[in-house]
Automatic annotation (TrEMBL):
Entry keyword annotation includes RNA-binding: yes
Gene3D superfamilies the record matches: 3.30.2130.30, Vaccinia Virus protein VP39
Keywords attached to this entry: Methyltransferase, RNA-binding, Transferase
SUPFAM superfamilies per UniProt: S-adenosyl-L-methionine-dependent methyltransferases
Originating species: Cytobacillus mangrovibacter
UniProt keyword Transferase present: yes
The protein's name: Class I SAM-dependent RNA methyltransferase
Pfam families cross-referenced by the UniProt entry: RlmL_1st (PF22020), THUMP (PF02926), UPF0020 (PF01170)
InterPro entries reported in the protein's UniProt record: DNA_methylase_N6_adenine_CS (IPR002052), RlmKL-like_Mtase (IPR000241), RlmKL-like_Mtase_CS (IPR053943), RlmL_1st (IPR054170), SAM-dependent_MTases_sf (IPR029063), THUMP_dom (IPR004114)
Any single biological process term in GO: methylation
GO MF term (any one): methyltransferase activity
THUMP domain segment(s): 42-153
Family annotation (PROSITE patterns): N6_MTASE, THUMP, UPF0020
Amino acid sequence: MFDIIATSAMGLEALVAKEVRDLGYECEVENGRISYKGDALAIARSNLWLRTADRIRIKVGEFKATTFDELFEKTKALPWENFLPEDAEFPVTGKSVKSQLFSVSDCQAIVKKAIVERMRKHYKKTGWFDENGPFFKIEVALHKDVALLTIDASGSGLHKRGYRAGQGEAPLKETLAAALVMLTNWSPDKPFVDPFCGSGTIPIEAALIGQNIAPGFNREFVSEGWHWVPEKVWEQARMETEDLANYDQPLDITGTDIDHRMVKIAEENAFEAGLGDLIQFKQMQVRDFTTMKEYGVIVGNPPYGERLGDKEEVQKMYAEMGAALAPLDTWSVYILTSNEQFEQFYGKPATKKRKLFNGFIRTDYYQYWGKRPPRTK
């Protein structure tokens, strides 16, 4: 069994934890990380399925360290040979927060040296290691004098789904886009609209969720090259993603944007994801949005008006959006913005709001719940 950590953006820990539990693993939640135990299959599944996690790490050890000696000896005492083959390429990265050992470059060098010593002894080697084999990126993270040593099992971050051929100037991370959809009351039988679709990330993530397609189905992971996560395990995990996908689920998903170039990019990205026929994209301003459909869900990440000169334009657009969406009383509307006066420009207080971070920007997710459909007997 391995100690697995799914890292998470601030504010999304509960969502990541729910996803981990849905995969069948009991977990513990801390700031920015969700910890659980699992076998090699759990590593593959986590990489393939977790929509809102940043990356999957394998914990090698955790201990208190206030001196470089202590860091060296305790690192050397860990069973690195269980993870690293003799030809492993293993760079060490680091970070330090509120710790006596604050020089990150020194901590990295010491951890590297300690692992080399341990491996020399195990592999009975006197010289240097060639490091021309599988890739193991090791991280030493110090927080309040506790060192956590992990190996990254994802490679590029999990937000890199492999479908983004093009993007705009302020793209939303795919992991956050998935979270925005999962925080709504949308289900695949309801219409879904993103009136500020940009490069199409939110509608694409909604379609993946709607058909239960694993977000990692279209990419590779660094742990596919590790001897202790065997190829047949990856084959099994990928077969599961095929079996669980519901490609026959009809979807009604639309993305609109004011910029025709973004609409074109969004269409290309949707085709790259294999969802081109499922999502309608069109050029449109939010103030022109009308629909006869009922009980739909609108999710938007509009411009925030952070730059000077954009502010008034954005405030006007929020007001126009409020006016356009006001008649749609059966629709639920979810808007992410850092603009703290959003409700007054939109013209209505939110049913609920939730604090989220878009990159380093603190935002609120304003939620307006529509009327519930009548109960069918």
